[in-house]
Design brief:
This protein has two helices and 21 strands. It has 305 residues and is mainly beta. Strands 1, 2, 4, 5, 6 and 9 form a six-stranded antiparallel β-sheet that branches. β10 and β11 form a beta hairpin.
Amino acid sequence: TLATAFAKPTQPTQPGKTVTGDTQGTVSLGDVLTYTITGVIPGNPSGETLTMKFKDVASKGLTLPSTKDGFNVMIGEAVYTGYTLTQSIDADTKQTTTEFDLGDVKDYAGKTVTITYNATVNEDALDTVNNTAYVYDPNTNQYVEEGTPVENKLYSFDFTKQDAAGNALAGAEFTISGANIDEAFTANGGVTTVTSGADGKVTFTGLAAGTYTVKETKVPDGFLQNVKPEFTVTIDKDGNVSFTQDAWHLVDPQTVTVKNVKSVTQLPLTGAAGITMLIVVALLLGGAAALIGVRSHSLKRQLTA
């Protein structure tokens, strides 16, 4: 009768690392990411004590669980609770290092260890957050195998606020909305309302790939208060940004500028703005015609009298 044999590595192998909860490799502030670390426990022909450890190093911008309750460790198909958790956060780099000491795992040789946990993207995230797993070699008492880093990107976009003459305009307020803009976004440092400064710049940061709606919610004094541009901005997975034109045609996607006007006559004669101009002109002409009609009728009555 033939027996079944299972090949077991005699040395620790490179740990696997995956992430879910991202958007095509990108994230927004407040996103919750699920990380999974995997590794195979080496074979142990001698039958002696086999110490197994994993280490996880997360970049700044990620908030990890701080107790065992936030981690799920399994060996094979069974939950494993006989491990010790040690965690530290570097004061300078803000990297979080978490060590999982599984203890003596000689009875589990050849089985796969799976460690799962959730992490939140926080306000310290700049343009990327990344995470790397390491595995320990009990023969040398040191971490010897580094896994492939898992990296997610964060993007931003900006535009310049101008008057009709192309001068930078301060004091215009804009608000952003979208699928990734929620309470978690603001709770982790995301800013949803930005006011243009002296240089006219408006910048929104901490965004994943997606389409966002931008509305001007406050027009500077001295400009038409009811003419407020609303437009969409799309960021693809590679960080390329595209703007759509608003109904008033005050957004220029090519120069990435958004204008305010002081009078209807400064509106571009296209789209909704052009229709508005025609309506205004029609109303003025209609008013003038009505006035002429009233005066003509009055003059006729005077002549008749």
